Structure formats: structure tokens, C-alpha cells
Amino acid sequence: MVRHPLRSYKNSSTTVKKGNWSEEEDQKLIAYIRRYGIWNWTHMPKPAGLARTGKSCRLRWMNYLRPNIRHGNITKEEEDLIIELHRLLGNKWAAIAARLPGRTDNEIKNYWNSRLNKRVGCRNKLQILTACHIKFKPEHNNSSSHPYASLPTIDTPKLEPDVGSQNEIPRMSENSFCTSHGVHHDDKTSESSWYSPCSVIEEEQRLWEQFLALRDLEIEEIFCGTKMHSGATDPDLVCMQQGLVYHSGTCEDFIMDLWEK
DNA sequence: AATCAGACCAACCGCTATGCC
DNA sequence: TGGCATAGCGGTTGGTCTGAT
Fold first, then answer.
1. Which nucleotide is nearest to A3 (CA to C1')?
2. What pLDDT band is residue A188 in, cutting at 50, 70 and 90?
């Protein structure tokens, strides 16, 4: 990927180059570091003959030029490890990269943002839906245009109806499914029937409520000292939301303690 | 063949952490 | 203890590539 030399700017008496690195610049940096080592990024560019900032040199070296860097071809094992580490550590790219020899935080971050984020996010949604015990059958009626129409069918454990209440939840069974039009009970022993319709908004609202309930449960579990088992929960946010103060250290320490265990 | 949108990714930027005086 | 310099981290930008139309 080539980046044009965007803009250069005057830094006191010298012009600082920005944008993509040329082969010549790379060689200069490599040669200099081989000869003198890394002693000070800020003051290194000038004696190295580079019209770059120290920051730029450091980034180029760390992400591209230093030995044992591996580029591309992230293996399935590495991918699984990234997903697992991200689940545990969140956006701590440096910490994740430290556990993947030869990979840089920048590469992992890019890989996550461009590929894994969507995939994992989608998978999490499906897990949430699974947890919500809802089964969709999009082909019925006009439901093909429904936003959930593309979702796969999910196994359907039973939900106890909120009998008698105004917001009665339709009874679900192995032969039931829910669409935006309502819950359909497909029982061979009786005629197919539809429970009261539920709008898309109501359905989405219920999904979110159930999602948040699950999240609350998870947060509660964390603060009860049990093992965190899913989701990259931001500990600071958790503290804020729950009005709690993690008094024996920072929230991050807490998460890291869990990680160590 | 031309155009466009989305994916990809190197590099930049701003902020924080750390070390030294 | 405070201030400064430097290193490091994570979010964002923007140029190129690629596949769809």
C-alpha cells in the first residue's frame, strides 16, 4: 500500500517529510540502527540523514523494518487467539500483539477493524439472539423484507409466558417461531395459529432489554468475584454504570487479575 | 470501459505514561 | 514535587486496490 508524500512542513530550520517511506529512507534507517542502535528517536533522524520526525522513524521501525516482523497471512490459530484476547483485554492492541510473536499492534488493530470486528460482532449478536431463545422463520408472509430475515434459525427453548399480564409473552415451544408479525405456533395436533402481533419495534426493544439484562448479569458476576466469561466489558464503564468503586486498585487491575488467573 | 463503493492498511495525530533532573 | 522530554499506545485519516454495476 503506497501512500503519497502528503504534505511536508517546516520544523524550525528543516523540512519534515510526511507520507510513505521510500526504499532509500528505509535503508538509511536500517543502516543507522544497525550501526548505532536505538538511542533516542527524537534526535536520531538528523544524523541518520532522514527528514522525518523521530516519531515517524519509530513507527516505521516498530511496524515494518525491525527484524522478525511477519506481515499478512494471519493464520486461523492467530485469528482465534486475537478474538479470544480481544474478548479478554478489549482494545489493548499492544497487549494482544505481545502474545503474538512477530505481529505488531498496528497490524492486529487493522486486522480487527477491517475483518474481525464485523464478523465477531455478528457472531455476538447471534449469541444474544440464541440467549433470547427466539426462533425466526422469515419466509412467512411478507417477512422476507424484515431486517431479521437473513438470520439463521436458532434453537428454541421454552419461554414461560407472563400469564395474565398486559404484555403477555406468547408461549414458545419447539414448534413455535417468532417473526415481526407475531409468534406462530405450529402444532400438528392443532390448527396453526398466530398469537397477538408484535411490532418490529417491540420485538427489537425486547431483544435489547434481554441483551441488557444478560449484560447486567455478567457485570454482577464480575463484581461477585466470579470469572468473567464473555464480552470485552469496559471496567471503567462498568464501575460508572453500577455506581461502584473498585477499591483495591483500578478496574483495569481487576480485569488483569482475572486474566492472570 | 468507466464509475463507484467498500475494503484494506500504512502512517499520522493526540493523548498518556514513564523517566529524569 | 513539579516540569520537561521522550516513548508508547490507540483512534483516525486518507490513498490505493478490488470487485460490483
1. C15
2. very low
Nucleic acid strand B within 7 Å of A99 CB: no
Fold of A76-117: Arc Repressor Mutant, subunit A (1.10.10)
Sign of CA dihedral A40, A46, A49, A51: positive
- Separation between the CA of A12 and the C1’ of C4 (whole angstroms): 19
Residue A121 has what pLDDT? 61
Q: What is the CATH number of domain A9-65?
A: 1.10.10.60
Residue A19, phi-psi category: left (phi > 0), alpha (psi -120 to 50), beta (remainder): left
- The per-type count for chain A, helices as H runs and strands as E runs, is 10, 5
Residue A98 CA to residue A80 CA, distance in Å, equals 15
From-to residues of CATH 1.10.10.60 in chain A = 9-65, 76-117
CA of A237 to C1' of C11 (A): 18
CA A27 to centroid of chain Cα atoms: 36
Closest by CA position to A47, among listed A62, A61, A60, A28? A28
So what's the pLDDT on residue A225? Answer: 34
Tell which strand B nucleotides have any atom below 7 Å from a protein Cβ: 7-14
> Distance of alpha carbon A216 from its chain centroid, rounded?
19
For the stretch A190-222, pLDDT in tens is: 333 323 333 334 444 544 454 444 444 444 434
Give the pLDDT confidence score for residue A125 in this predicted structure.
Answer: 58
- A43-72 tens-digit pLDDT: 888 888 888 888 889 888 988 888 888 877
